[in-house]
Design brief:
The complex is a heterodimer of chains A (295) and B (307). Helices cover 78% and strands 0% of the residues of chain A. With 295 residues, chain A is mainly alpha-helical. In chain A, helix 4 runs antiparallel to helix 5. Chain A starts with a helix and ends with a helix. The longest helix of chain B is centred in the first third of the chain and has 31 residues. With 307 residues, chain B is an all-alpha fold. In chain B, 73% of the residues lie in helices and 0% in strands. The chains are: A mainly alpha (295), B mainly alpha (307). Chains A and B meet through helix 1, helix 4, helix 5, helix 6 and helix 7 of A and helix 1, helix 2, helix 5, helix 6 and helix 7 of B.
Chain lengths: 295, 307
């Protein structure tokens, strides 16, 4: 009997090894296809930005005369469409920073009150927030625009900041509440017995312990505000109040779109969020899966 | 000092049986604490009332006239838009989620290069949407786009004008763009779900001789099904309101044939200057949106810990 097993193993082993090699080869081939699929639109962006203006309208698939001139033109605002590039870039930063700060502040205060202090009927607030999370932003855009005009905030950066805060806070409250459960409530109680006011508990105990969640949500809010287009397009109309994506999209409507400048602008605009994304990737994924997986 | 405080706190805080996990502050909120709690929650309530409740109510009021809906339903562009939306959501979401399910399995492989590949694979999610959509728009240009240039160089095929000749090619381009952009995100979510499945279950399945497809069908999928369903529901809700993909890849063209509800609504409101009609357009998504939200909320409530 033992001989039979030995024989079987001896026969099977080379076959098994071959199969293993074949699956590995298939996986590598699949990975190559996957990389091409993933990278093509990004390659296109880089490739067009390196072309000269004349070369854009040819059937090249790589830059014939690669040059960084487009980037230089964007950085020095040396084209009539790019006149206010740095101004618009600063607007984007301003909106991103303000959105992040206000989202973290409003979100953490609300979840401290509801989750830690257990404000009576606080669940109504968190459910309302959750409901906001599932309203598509584009469906709310038209009445939002009318109301911003009523508030006198048309063509004002703060209109956009409020819009981004509106859509980022529900996620913030959700994540903060999920994460807050893991912090022992005895800490709060100990501080209270020592005579700390709720504000002190919030500042000295809650916020420091919530740091990982704050980072995750802060990254989320920053990227949301930086990447959002529709509300910025609706609410900001003058060249000086525009943000980079709005100005970029304006190119599309011009008769002779300077594609190489557009792509250079797009790359410069895309670099900060990519850097932030890869720097905080783990934290952010943890936050996302916390929301997505645990529900 | 702090350790005695902890001990005192522990002694005082006898576990209350009714709320084992999230207890309220002991003794409830007293005096000024209640004021503090209200003050902390007021900013969010302010944001909610001013920027959600009021716009929603205002929107409902804007789109309340039945005449708007009879106008919409007699408009062929609107009817086509509804079909587009259903196709975009139905095909886009399901292909993407199924792809993400398979991809998450692929990234469970323990080769040395899968981790690096994952970093590249999440690029579409990391890069801001707008630049990539504009890039895809130009890439699919019939005359000078990269795709047709490659087709010509490799196979000497004259590629079609992807975005400006046929409705179906354009709609297919939008769906492909959507999958390109969002599959990585859902793959990461499902990958986290897969990693949470205890290894012992697979070991047990191994002992029972389950491999490959059967392992997936009897271990992975039953444990992942709930998460998959929740993700699909959430994604459907998000994609129903998708604006950027259609707006930048096809712009609703050729001849307004690839609009979805969100882009048509914005077009009605800002280009045609009929905000009421725009609101009515997006409101017609509510009969689909509301049941989805209710199902999702139910699902989320019943599956707190169970993965």
């Amino acid at each position: 009997m033992s001989a039979v097993t030995a024989d079987g193993v001896a026969k099977r082993r080379p076959n098994y090894r071959l199969r293993r090699k074949l699956t590995e080869a298939a996986a590598v081939a699949f990975a190559c296809v996957l990389v091409i699929w993933t990278v093509t639109p990004i390659y296109n962006m880089v490739f067009v930005s390196l072309e000269t203006h004349g070369d854009v309208f040819t059937s090249n698939i790589w830059p014939a005369h690669p040059t960084l001139k487009s980037f230089w033109i964007v950085l020095t605002e040396d084209y009539w469409y790019l006149q206010y590039f740095w101004h618009q870039f600063a607007n984007s930063i301003y909106i991103g920073a303000a959105t992040t700060f206000i989202t973290l502040l409003v979100g953490s205060l609300a979840s401290f009150s509801i989750g830690r202090m257990r404000l009576k009927n606080g669940w109504i607030v968190s459910n309302a927030a959750l409901l906001t999370y599932v309203i598509p932003a584009s469906f709310l855009a038209i009445p939002f625009y009318s109301i911003m005009i009523k508030y006198g905030l048309a063509n004002n950066l703060w209109a956009v900041i409020f819009a981004e805060v509106t859509f980022a806070t529900p996620y913030a409250i959700f994540i903060f509440q999920q994460y807050g459960v893991s912090i022992p409530i005895e800490l709060d109680e100990a501080a209270r017995i020592d005579g700390a006011s709720p504000l002190q508990v919030y500042l000295l105990i809650y916020l420091p312990l919530m740091a990982p969640a704050l980072v995750a949500v802060g990254t989320y809010a920053l990227l949301l505000a930086w990447n959002e287009y529709l509300y910025q397009f609706m609410l900001l109309s003058s060249v000086k109040s525009m943000t980079v994506p709005v100005a970029l999209a304006q190119f599309l409507n011009s008769d002779e779109a300077p594609w190489n400048y557009m792509m250079a602008t797009a790359i410069i605009y895309a670099i900060p969020p990519i850097a932030v994304y890869y720097a905080f990737r783990r934290r952010m994924t943890a936050g996302l899966t916390m929301g997505g997986v645990k529900g | 000092m702090s350790s005695t405080t902890f001990e005192a706190a522990r002694e005082l805080a006898a576990p209350s049986p009714s709320l084992p996990r999230r207890r309220r502050w002991r003794g409830g909120l007293q005096g000024s604490e209640f004021t503090w709690a209200i003050a902390f929650v007021v900013p969010y309530i302010g944001v909610f009332v001013a920027f959600v409740l009021y716009p929603v109510a205002y929107g409902l009021w804007m789109g309340h006239s039945p005449a708007l809906y009879s106008e919409l339903f007699s408009d062929p562009i609107y009817l086509r838009t509804v079909v587009n939306t259903v196709l975009f959501v139905g095909i886009g979401v399901n292909l993407k989620m199924f792809g993400a399910l398979l991809m998450s399995g692929f990234f469970m492989r323990k080769s040395w290069w899968t981790k690096g590949l994952l970093l590249i694979y999440v690029l579409p999610w990391a890069v801001p949407a707008l630049p990539t959509f504009i890039s895809i728009h130009w890439m699919l240009n019939g005359q000078w786009g990269l795709v047709n240039n490659v087709l010509w160089d490799l196979f000497h095929i004259d590629g079609p004008g992807w975005l400006d000749t046929s409705r179906w090619l354009a709609l297919g381009s939008v769906i492909t763009t959507h999958i390109w952009k969002w599959m990585p995100f859902w793959t990461v979510i499902l990958l986290a779900g897969r990693m949470a499945i205890p290894q012992e279950l697979y070991d047990a399945a191994d002992v029972d001789g389950a491999t490959g497809v059967r392992r997936f069908a009897h271990v992975t999928f039953p444990l992942l099904a709930n998460l998959y369903l929740i993700c699909t529901l959430l994604s459907t809700i998000f994609v129903l309101g998708e604006f950027n993909e259609v707006y930048f890849v096809t712009g609703g063209g050729p001849a307004l044939s690839t609009h979805v509800l969100a882009t048509l609504g914005i077009r009605d409101a800002f280009q045609v200057a009929r905000p009421d009609l725009g609101v009515a357009t997006v409101m017609t998504a509510l009969p689909l949106l509301i049941p989805l939200v209710i199902i999702l909320m139910r699902k989320l409530q019943t599956t707190e810990v169970q993965l």
